[in-house]
Amino acid sequence: MSRAGVQDSGLPPSLGGLPASYGAASGIRDWGLGKLHVGGLINTGRGNDGATHHRCSMLPPCIARSGSGWYRGNIVRIYLDYNATAPVPAEVADAVSTALRECPGNASSIHAFGQRAKALLDDARSAVARLIGGEPSEIVFTAGGTEADNLAVRGVAESQKDGARSAVITTAIEHEAVLNAVRLLGRRGWPVSLLPVGASGVVAADALARAFDAGGDSAPALVSVMLVNNELGTVQPVKAMAALSRARGVPFHTDAVQAVGRIPVNVRDLGVDLLSIAGHKFGAPKGVGALWVRRGLVLQPQSIGGRQERGRRAGTENVPAIEGLGVAAERAARRMSSEAPRQAALRDRLEQGILAKVPGTAVNGDPGARVPNTTNISFEGVEGESMVIALDLDGIAVSTGSACSSGTLEPSHVLRAIGLAPARVESAVRFSLGEGTTDAEIDRVLDVVPAVVARLRARGRGRG
Ligand SMILES: Cc1ncc(COP(=O)(O)O)c(C=O)c1O
Description:
Elements: E1 27-30, E2 35-38, E3 42-46, E4 52-56, H1 58-62, E5 63-66, E6 69-72, E7 75-79, H2 90-102, H3 112-132, E8 139-142, H4 145-157, E9 168-171, H5 176-187, E10 192-195, H6 205-214, E11 222-224, H7 238-248, E12 252-255, H8 267-270, E13 274-278, E14 289-293, H9 319-357, E15 361-363, E16 374-379, H10 384-393, E17 396-397, H11 413-417, H12 422-426, E18 428-432, H13 439-463
Parallel strand pairs: 7-17, 9-10, 9-11, 11-12, 12-13
Antiparallel strand pairs: 1-2, 3-4, 5-6, 6-7, 8-14, 13-14, 15-16, 16-18
Pyridoxal-5'-phosphate is lined by residues 144-146, 149, 175, 177, 226, 230, 255, 257-258, 278, 280, 289, 402-403.
């Protein structure tokens, strides 16, 4: 196989067949343990343009799905990092590829090509709206969760009349997409209030009531509380908090990036005003998402230009990616009721197995208030980053926290915010499962993890 002027990887085509999107991420990181290539071998070759190309042979056929597992050559690779991103299922990849090849028009054009593109957008808009119980006209397509969060937080705050700058309330465990948007508002004069979160990883609804009381008569501009925390998987009492907000007439945004597609989410039932979605967490391509905006809510667009998305987000829509988002939304709606209990059973077996087999382990966050696919476990005496590297060498992909913060070696702001001791924060590892996770994979992880922990602890003792 030869693509895009890059030399053939030379690996057997029998393991091929993955959509190109699987090859998107690769990188070399220097962890001080020598160079580790995350995700595959590197090929160097001369392309058609005569230039030397370095390319990861992680592109098919290097890592391939075969039967119940992922393989590189004959090494099993187990992906337990679905909260960072989920693989794109063949059904979605096919839909994206068909749209790319067969739908060249701009959805704003009035000719037949444009109308065809618009029809794809309309279908996808309806599918996303159905998944969350909203109206198609309330969906604003974005380039992912971060953009949706920015549009919600900044868009609502900046739409205040006469340049008013009333308080913005959020929690200390939000994703950086919300936290940094709120911090920016803080620097520009909006008073900011961060609700504290206890060891359970679940914010108490009455913390919001207290924040409202502390503000006296002045109504805040916005409350933003995530539905599911990305590191702990804990579900926040959004419905109760949105009700408190509504009683005060304060717009309420929820970042539901880690919830949509995994657990039932209904915007009317939650009573929120804005809700963020990221497609790549449930099988759509990376770089596409949506913001649901309750009809009638005024929002200051953050991207200025044409009238796309009813004037709420300028720029030509990414039709193939949005088509993928629509198909992924339909697929999630079909599969959720069987996938959620299946993943919960696997997650619980993984968690109980680790707690039983590895002394000095503890689960972070309230195990009773979580999405089905996530567990966050601290391993006493072991650095989380070392665990991630050691497990990767054994073919198991996990993470220390959110994909954006892991890689910075900054201790997790979420685990610090819930009051964990520094040693427990630094030894935390997140396992997040998905629809590809199998029983056999959990068996293998339960074999590997105790040995890896013992090795790392022995090395730590050796260093004294
Ligand atoms: C809770 C949460 N919000 C927002 C984002 C950002 O989404 P995206 O990666 O699509 O920009 C993430 C990504 O991990 C997330 O977990």
